[in-house]
Write a structure and sequence with these properties.
The protein has helices at about 20, 45-60, 70-75, 85-100, 115-120, 130-145, 155-165, 180-200, 230-250, 285-290, 305-315, 335-350, 395-410; strands spanning about 10-15, 65-70, 105-110, 150-155, 210-220, 260-270, 275, 320-325, 355-365, 380-385, 395. By secondary structure, it is an alpha/beta fold. The strands form two sheets. An eight-stranded parallel β-barrel has the order 1-2-3-4-5-6-8-9, surrounded by six helices. A two-stranded antiparallel ribbon has the order 10-11. The termini are far apart. The relative contact order is 0.16. It binds beta-D-fucopyranose. Beta-D-fucopyranose binds near residues 18, 21, 159, 363 and 370.
């Protein structure tokens, strides 16, 4: 099987988080939000104070890359303001900690959160968000260009725009505002195009800069073959969430702003009488089981679609690809390991078929604040005990499995190699 061969030497084996979900102590539109399980993001995993410990854990996981958010709201108090020195220094120190143990950072510039002054001016509906974002990126790139070469401008613009203006899941919780959805995507695509050019021009410090978005990919289909209305809705969903978004970000001259395409892949949504058969839509586990649909605690799993998708992206855009997110939420660790293995085999098959994939980032390093769902979704390679004020982290069996993958560069699970030794104390914040 193709999966027996090694992944390339320079392949990035990483893990991912986002600032609002792990850092705690953020002041943005999520600060006062209370999730379905009563949780909020005010402390989250306290990665803000514990990043050195988390970098230690990364070394134990054997990863060589970390996709991390830099929180805009921490760095700019007003449009076009200088960057906050203290907060910048903290991120610089985190980047230095990563460097000290040979972990390559990929920085995400926008991951579902905004500075309060962007929100109060109408968020991404207001075109003035575009120059403000580009100014922020220009300043950040100039500050970090010696430490960062991998830049991810927007995480899942489609998820952000749909949950804010179509589905009512994210602040400001509006529903069915199609014109607003399109406007947000267009403004973000323009901001990406301008920021991408700035990054390629200015961020030449260590290595040739790389820049791209992370596109969430859900494939939509009808559960019943002859349900024409569900096929119709699936086609509309595909157009709105996939085609329209990719055309805006990568169509025409905007294509040049990206040097890679980031892909977040969790699975698919099949529709049954206009209802998506996925747990996040409130469909019970029993019902999904009866219907023969395999899900984690969020989405339907569809590994077979993964290689197909990667080949399709390769044909359509010819850009190198990073898998910027894949993971599964479940307390059943065997399920999560099987899920990861199945997706890595598909990834390997796509690469064997000629797709240029440069890295894979497991979502997520830590159990964390999963937006509307709070702390109920367990995605971590490390579990976090949120009932204990010290928020202790613990290695999971998925983490051990992934460590073997990262350190052997194969999916063959031989004797577990112990991972790299814990990082040196250079990383401790003084
Ligand atoms: C992705 C998001 C990430 C997390 C995972 C489960 O859509 O980018 O923040 O919520 O899903």
């Amino acid at each position: 099987m193709a999966g027996d061969s090694k992944f390339p030497e320079n392949f990035l084996w990483g893990t991912a988080t986002s600032a609002t979900q792990v850092e705690g102590h953020v002041v943005n539109e999520w600060t006062d939000y209370v999730a379905a399980d009563g949780g909020n993001c005010r402390v989250a995993c306290d990665h803000y104070h514990r990043y050195a410990e988390d970098v230690d854990w990364m070394t134990r996981l054997g990863v060589n890359a970390y996709r991390m958010g830099i929180e805009w709201s921490r760095l700019q108090a007003a449009p076009f303001a200088p960057l906050n020195r203290t907060e910048l220094d903290r991120y610089v120190h985190l980047l230095d900690c990563l460097k000290a143990v040979g972990i390559t950072p990929m920085v995400v510039l926008h991951h579902f959160s905004n500075p309060p002054w962007i929100t109060s001016a109408g968020g991404w509906l207001n075109p003035s968000a575009v120059p403000a974002f580009v100014d922020y990126v220009t300043k950040l790139v100039s500050a970090l260009k010696d430490r960062v070469y991998l830049w991810n401008t927007f995480n899942e613009p489609d998820t952000y725009a749909s949950l804010t203006y179509l589905l009512g899941g994210f602040p400001p919780f509006h529903k069915w505002r199609f014109a607003s959805y399109r406007k947000v995507i267009r403004h973000m695509a323009e901001a990406h195009a301008q920021a991408g050019r700035v990054i390629q021009r200015d961020s030449g410090g260590v290595k040739t800069p790389e820049v791209g978005i992370a596109k969430n990919w859900t494939s939509f289909g009808a559960f019943q073959t002859f349900a024409l209305w569900d096929h119709f809705l699936a086609a509309i969903s595909h157009h709105a969430f996939n085609r329209f978004v990719l055309n805006e970000f990568l169509g025409g001259r905007r294509r040049d702003a990206s040097t890679f395409l980031g892909v977040n892949y969790y699975g698919r949504a099949r529709l049954n009488h206009f209802q998506a058969l996925v747990p996040t839509n409130g469909v019970s586990t029993e019902r999904l089981k009866q219907l023969g649909i395999t899900c984690d605690d969020m989405f339907e799993r569809h590994p077979a679609g993964f290689a197909r998708l990667l080949k399709r992206f390769h044909r359509s855009y010819g850009l190198p690809i990073y898998i910027t997110e894949h993971g599964a939420a479940s307390t059943d660790e065997d399920f999560r390991i099987r899920d990861l293995m199945a997706h890595l085999h598909e990834l390997r098959a796509a690469m064997d078929g000629g797709v240029d994939v440069r890295g894979f980032f497991y979502w997520s390093l830590l159990d964390n604040f999963e937006w509307q769902f709070g702390y109920s979704k367990k995605f971590g390679l490390l579990s976090v005990d949120f009932s204990d004020d010290k928020l202790p982290r613990k290695m999971t069996r998925v983490g051990e499995f992934y460590r073997n993958v990262c350190t052997t560069r194969t999916m063959d699970q031989g004797a577990p190699p112990g991972g790299r030794p814990p990082s040196p104390s250079v990383c401790r914040r003084v």
